[in-house]
Design brief:
Helix content: over 70%
Number of domains: 2
Order of helices and strands: HHEHEHHEHHEHHHHH
Strand order of the largest sheet: 2-3-1-4
Number of helices: 12
Strand content: 5-15%
Distance between the termini: 62 Å
Length: 325
């Protein structure tokens, strides 16, 4: 069955659609081609711009990897830091175990280990087995002088204070002799501040370098636009849209970002191949090279995304200021 011929109006709409499609394709090719020409025309400036963006991306990625290391260190320190609640000698074991059950229900508590008086004595003797005088003096005592305790670990070092406040409730006051939180508070505070300071410092460093990258790319694109000033003037006179003028320079900025991301990735792999074994020798649970290889796809997407954002944003700002003139 033959297809019905389109009406005159429909035929006109089809021609208009094909014309718009052809113009869009032509303009897109022109934008990309001109952007590549701009990139190669100022090769030295392009190399300098890419170098700055590479430095920014390298630092951002290094901070990401440093965060992996510091999180591992902080987690290890947090596992070693605990708070102990020591109980009065007359406190019944059933009451102590009831407190333990209350504690482990708290979302802030990672674990709560009960150490009986006899177990505490056994551990004390093991720690001081090289001091026979102390052991002999302890054996001469009629009663076990050590106290039963709960050794409490928090999910995060910053949560110990909430746990201690829970223990200092009046219903536990008659059972607990002391909580050694205040003796350990300085260590706990240092562990908490270590993570936050590293994160804050990394953000500041990344922000400063990102501003530098934007500034250098901004000036490179401005210089390119100055070289194209006559062509831009002609395009504006014949009614070319601002986006038609902007296109090649935004493409140029995106090229800077993409190439910078690839260069950064090429530099990172051998650097990690050299550094990772040295870090692993001190921190066996940290393998940066393995982390990099497993997450290379996400890291590449991050680098390209940040690089393109820096390059295109710088170009957009430069063009916007230029077109206002």
């Amino acid at each position: 069955m033959a297809r019905p011929r389109p009406s005159r109006g429909e035929a006109g709409e089809i021609r208009n659609y094909e014309l718009i499609k052809s113009m869009f394709k032509t303009n897109l090719i022109r934008v990309i081609k001109t952007g590549l020409q701009n990139f190669w025309r100022n090769s030295w400036l392009s190399a300098a711009t890419i170098s700055i963006i590479v430095l920014t991306l390298f630092v951002i990625t290094s901070l990401l990897l440093l965060n992996v290391v510091t999180q591992s260190i902080v987690a290890d320190l947090e596992n070693k830091v605990d708070v102990s609640a020591y109980f009065n000698s007359e406190s019944p074991e059933t009451d102590i175990l009831a407190i333990r059950q209350d504690l482990i229900k708290l979302p802030e508590v990672k674990s709560a280990e009960y150490v009986s008086k006899n177990e505490a004595l056994k551990q004390f003797k093991e720690r001081h087995k090289d001091n026979p005088t102390l052991i002999e003096s302890l054996n001469e005592l009629d009663d076990n002088p050590l106290q039963a305790s709960l050794n409490i670990k928090a999910q995060s070092a910053s949560q110990f204070e909430q746990i201690v406040n829970f223990l200092e409730q009046s219903k536990y006051e008659s059972l607990i002799n002391k909580v050694n939180y205040h003796q350990n508070k300085e260590v706990i505070d240092r562990v908490s501040s270590l993570a936050s300071n590293i994160g804050r410092g990394g953000l500041i460093a990344s922000f400063v370098l990102a501003l530098m990258a934007i500034f250098v790319t901004f000036n490179t694109v401005r210089l390119t636009m100055y070289n194209w000033r006559e062509e831009i003037s002609v395009m504006r006179l014949v009614g070319a849209s601002n986006w038609y003028i902007r296109g090649p320079f935004i493409v140029e900025g995106m090229i800077y970002g993409i190439l910078a991301a690839l260069v950064t990735l090429i530099i990172l792999y051998p650097a990690l191949y050299f550094v990772s074994p040295k870090i692993t020798s001190f921190l066996p649970e940290v393998d940066l090279l393995y982390f990099f290889e497993v997450n290379i796809g996400q890291i590449l997407i991050l680098l390209v995304g940040v690089g393109v954002a820096l390059g295109s944003l710088s170009s957009f700002i430069a063009i916007r200021r230029y077109l206002r003139v």
